[in-house]
Amino acid sequence: METKTSGLRGRQAEAARNDQAILDAARAVFIRDPGAPISAVAEEAGVGVGALYRRYAGKEELLRTLCEDGLRRFMAIAESAPARHSDPWDAFAAFVGEVIDSDVHSLTVHLAGTFTPTPEMHRLAAEASSLAAQILDHAKTAGALRPDVDARDIPMIFDQITAIRLGDAGRTAALRQRYLTLLLDALRADTPATPLPASPPSDEELGVRWRHTESSRSSQHRPRR
Amino acid sequence: METKTSGLRGRQAEAARNDQAILDAARAVFIRDPGAPISAVAEEAGVGVGALYRRYAGKEELLRTLCEDGLRRFMAIAESAPARHSDPWDAFAAFVGEVIDSDVHSLTVHLAGTFTPTPEMHRLAAEASSLAAQILDHAKTAGALRPDVDARDIPMIFDQITAIRLGDAGRTAALRQRYLTLLLDALRADTPATPLPASPPSDEELGVRWRHTESSRSSQHRPRR
DNA sequence: AGACTAGCGGAACAGAACCTTCCGTTCAAG
DNA sequence: CTTGAACGGAAGGTTCTGTTCCGCTAGTCT
Description:
Chains A, B: Keywords: DNA-binding, Transcription, Transcription regulation. Chains A, B: InterPro entries: Homeodomain-like_sf, HTH-type_TetR-like_transc_reg, HTH_TetR, Tet_transcr_reg_TetR-rel_C_sf, TetR_SbtR-like_C. Chains A, B: This is TetR/AcrR family transcriptional regulator. The structure is a homodimer. Chain A has about 220 residues and is mainly alpha-helical. In chain A, about 65% of the residues lie in helices and about 0% in strands. Chain A folds into two domains: about 1-55, no CATH class; about 60-215, Tetracycline Repressor, domain 2 (Orthogonal Bundle), CATH 1.10.357. Chain A has helices at about 10-30, 40-45, 50-55, 60-85, 90-100, 105-110, 120-140, 155-160, 170-185, 205-210. The two termini of chain A are about 35 Å apart.
């Protein structure tokens, strides 16, 4: 965003390249395993851990940066989808599909709880979910979306689809689209709809995931091989 | 299963009670967090770690026991559902719903990779998935289930729904039923069906999850509070 | 050319988490 | 009262990981 990688040479060019490489590596690694050690990021980026600590004060700051970046990507998708699709249903489907494709949800909610969120991030999160709610509302008032789904159901849908993780990134993406397609069939207004039990999660319940949990321990997620 | 808790008194009764308490605690704890330390199990059971090591040689053995128990529960559901519901769709819906309610999927697949599976477990797993395939086939040939879903889609569905984890156990269960209801609407044959992209996961892909991954590190899963 | 320095790699350090062992204690049974 | 099965939980030893530190490299500047 702010570092111009264009007109630089020599050492400065390497530094700029590393800036990018580290961010990309961190994204890849932490999406694969939110509890990965920082050395794994360095290895994936092909740099030493020192290079990492030169740019970020510590792990938390890296995580925060990554998460904020994720929120911005999310908002970019939420803003552009309705702009590119005049049909409300298409906009909704595109929005959901692209969020899943870019795996932005793993970057935000899945990483939250690993660090203390900044007020700025709360602001971004609120704005983002408001945008998402708008997209859903448009599809609903247009009569394309079944009326008993709520805006708060959306994060849950992301949670579910994002849980799919099999094989390499490409295969995972393909499988996710498969099950998203299935889900979308259930969400369309012309589907015979069974009344949904229970209420969607409240804002409170959804917000809990952003609260910093002292000690976010645990295992799971099989780092292949 | 084998320990009679009935006619015992004193120390032996306490031991028998602890057998149960430990198993229950382990189930609860490891479902909540598959990477939980063994001391967490002891604490939840209200016993010391010593009591735990008296019955199991180590963590792995406890995990294996738990997982095998889960597989048997799974099979019990898969066998009883068709027996209780003559309508193939009802049997299918009951099967899926009950597996999710008992959270048996977290006990099997989510714990696999944490230990080296026994041949016996492979046998059970194969038998279980074969039973599930039968239930699905019946619903499909009866024309109740959309024809483009495969038996291999079932574990994926479990994965997705099981990813929902919000609030206490009760609320989580309620939310899971909500999204299962939604999904079932997509699976019914009379739903206008969009062709599903990509192929369902292969047996190979699904099997990977049972392979013991040296070092199943990582974090994630927020232990509430 | 030669000195300077931003930036780098990775060993070393320090601390935390965890599995497992060990031992003193408890209490029902004989 | 003696005995020993079963228990609780501190201590041991290991592994893993965040962070620091320092010697080295290669552009850059005079």
